[in-house]
Each structure stands twice: as C-alpha cells, then as structure tokens.
Amino acid sequence: MAPISNLNAVSETLPAIPKLLDLRIPRYGTKIIGVICNKMDEFQRNPLQTTRRVALGSASIAFFGNLGIKTSLAEDNGFWLTGPIPVPSAENKIANEETSTRSFLKNGIYMAKIGKKGTEYRLKKYAFDLLALGDMIGQDTWNYIRKYLRLKSTFMYYDFDKVITAAAINDKQSLTDLANKLFNNVEKLEDAVKMHDLPKTRSCYQDTTTILQEVMDRMA
C-alpha cells in the first residue's frame, strides 16, 4: 500500500475544482434575474478551465457552421430546391396541336437537373416501367393505372423535350416525330382508362407498347 504522505503529495498537485454555480430557486410568481457564484475569483485564476457545457456548445457551433457551408454549396447543384417548385415548359413541338398541351400532364412535379445522359436514362427507364403496366389492365385498378400513367408520361414529356433540344440537328426531327407518336397514343390510352373502357384500353395499350420499345431502343 502506498504511504499516506505520497497520496497527500499527489493531491496537492491537482488543481482546485471550482464549485458549481449556486442557482437559487425562486418562489412562485417571481422571475429569475441572474445567477450567483461564490467562487468567481477561482474562475478568473483558471481561465483555461472550461466547463463541459461550454465545450459542447463550442462543438455544436462548429458542427452547425459546417452544415451551413455545405448547404450553401448544394444550392447550385440542380438537386437543392430553395424556393417554389418551378413550372416546367417544353420548347419543342411535342404538344397536342389542337390543345397546345397534353391531357396527361401533372402539375407540381419537381424535375431535378440530371444532365443529358441522366435524362436519356430516365426516359428509357420510364418507358420500361410503362411496359409493365399491361399486367394491371383488366383488374379493378383504374384510378391507379391512370395516376401511374400520368406521372410517368409527364416526366417522359419534359425529358423528351430536353433530349430533343440537346440532340444534333439531324436527329431533332426524328426524335420529335417519335415523341408525338408516343404522346398521341398515351392520350388515347388515358382517355380509355378514364372511361373504364376495357377493350379500348387493351387496344390502345397494345399500340403504345410498340412505341415504348422503340423509345427504349433509341435511348440505349
């Protein structure tokens, strides 16, 4: 066992620990106007000793400060939305000539900027998704089919417009013709689904699948 004199020597080398703040609990109906510390002179003599709460507070400020920097850098990457959802528009002639729009288009959809290759990939993927829609035809899922058809077709509509804009001059017309052929059939299919007309829905869907496969081949 260590001598008692050695233990006393060790204890004398340790710095004095200041007493905790003396918080006085007020009576009901009173307000806290401050705190009282009986050993403020000990804090002044040991300026490098910080409490655990102060250390954690400093770490939190640094952490959230870094988050603020990352957020500001993310505002221009095409995925970060800091304001209202922008309303997309089509620059090329892929709208219905009679209505100047498409009946299946949905509002309030945010389309992130994913570049030309990303847009082509999404266009191909959504064409594949619509090919699987045929398994649901004939079941009591008319509302779901219409919502799914409109959602996918809306993305494809604006993606097709971006692909046509970025395409070479010699490819623009063929892509425009393919887009119009697809969306004309989608409008017919949507109308048949809305009317719950099963024979017409199957017929329109069969015509649309051929065009969807052509879109997938073109975007490969």
Helix and strand succession?
Answer: HHHHHHH
Proportion in helices: 55-70%
Give start-end ranges of low-pLDDT stretches: 1-14, 17-23, 28-40, 67-72
End-to-end Cα distance: 81 Å
Strand content: under 5%
**What structural category characterises the helix and strand content?**
mainly alpha
Question: What is the secondary structure topology, with strand pairs?
Answer:
Layout: H1 4-13, H2 40-45, H3 52-74, H4 115-131, H5 142-166, H6 169-194, H7 198-218
Helix pairs in contact: 4-5, 4-7, 5-6, 6-7
Features:
mainly alpha, 7 helices, disordered N terminus, 220 residues, single chain
3D architecture notes:
The structure is a single chain. With 220 residues, this protein is mainly alpha-helical. It contains seven helices and no strands. It has helices spanning 4-13, 40-45, 52-74, 115-131, 142-166, 169-194, 198-218. The longest helix has 26 residues, at 169-194. 16% of the residues are buried.
Describe, in short, the structure shown.
This protein is mainly α. The protein has helices at 4-13, 40-45, 52-74, 115-131, 142-166, 169-194, 198-218.
